[in-house]
Design brief:
- The structure is a single chain.
- The protein has one domain.
- It contains four helices and three strands.
- Helix 1 runs parallel beside helix 3.
- The longest helix is centred in the first third of the chain and has 15 residues.
- The N and C termini lie far apart (31 Å).
- This is MmcQ/YjbR family DNA-binding protein.
- Keywords: DNA-binding.
- One of its GO terms (molecular function) is DNA binding.
Length: 118
């Protein structure tokens, strides 16, 4: 089954943003990703409740939901916009990245980035 274009575009924007953060690399177990459910997954407790209000959202499988990961179908009406996905990526990055990398990201103007200017 093909990934709907709108969901793929959202994911591509969030992925591009994430990979632009200092020290970021692509891994499959610890990043938001489009999977067999055509969704994104994220892992930040402070916005966990907000993420669960998205249409079709549910705690991630394999026990990851207990750690705050949420699966969100991106193709559904009312799914988060790319900008919100990027906000969640940046929020999670600031929690888990070493302080030297978050300082580097802030020095590069990270707080004022926009989706197109990241």
């Amino acid at each position: 089954m093909a990934v709907p274009r709108n969901a793929l575009k959202k994911w591509e924007k969030a992925r591009e943003f994430a990979l632009g953060l200092p020290g970021a690399t692509e891994a499959h177990a610890a990043e938001p990703h489009i999977d067999e459910d055509r969704g994104a997954r994220r892992s930040r407790r402070s916005t966990h409740a907000h993420a669960l209000t998205c249409p079709g959202a549910e705690p991630a499988g394999y026990g990851l939901g207990k750690a705050g990961w949420v699966g969100i179908p991106l193709e559904q009406k009312g799914a988060p916009a790319a900008e919100l996905l990027c906000d969640w990526v940046e929020e999670s990055y600031r929690v888990i990245a070493p302080k030297r990398l978050t300082a580097e990201e802030a020095a590069d103007g990270g707080a004022g980035r926009t989706l197109t200017g990241r």
